[in-house]
Amino acid sequence: MSGIVIEDPRMRTLVDPDAALEKLWTGAAWSEGPVWWEDGGVTWSDIPNNRMRWHPIKDGTIFHQPSNHANSHTRDRDGRLVSCEHSGRRISRTQHDGTVVTLVDRYRESA
User: Fold this and answer.
1) Out of 44, 64, 66, 106, which could bridge 52 as a Cys pair, Cβ 3.0 to 4.6 Å?
2) What gap in Å lies between CA 34 and CA 100, rounded to an integer?
3) What distances in angstroms separate CA 67 from CA 20, 90, 99, one per listed residue?
4) Which residues contact 105 (CB under 8 A, 6 or more apart)?
5) Which of 36-40, 56-60, 66-70, 101-105 is predicted with the least confidence, judged by mean pLDDT?
């Protein structure tokens, strides 16, 4: 038996149920928000330690620290990383050159 349990058969179009699971890194208090990159790397949040990690070759290199306790991540149509930041109270985007810009930091601000 593999370590992958598929409850909905439609998931088999995305994940091979016989694929081997591989631990990429240990040492986070808890990790969330993984984003997979075409080159095989993955970015994820180590929230309590206020950092984002990057796994280009399974070494867990720090990508951003502090990360403003970034949690959820996705990528935009141009491949840039978009993150929700708890302590930054914003949605940010990491540009291709590594700079971080604010996309949203308020909602219906009163005059």
Assistant:
1) 64
2) 18
3) 31, 11, 12
4) 88, 89, 90, 91
5) 56-60
CATH fold for the domain made of 28-104: Thrombin, subunit H (2.40.10)
Per-domain boundaries in the chain: 28-104
pLDDT band of residue 61 (cuts 50, 70, 90) is confident
Q: What is the reported pTM? A: 0.77
| Confidence check: pLDDT of 1 > 50 | no
CA distance 35 to 32: 10
Supply φ then ψ for residue 48, to 5 degrees: -60, -25
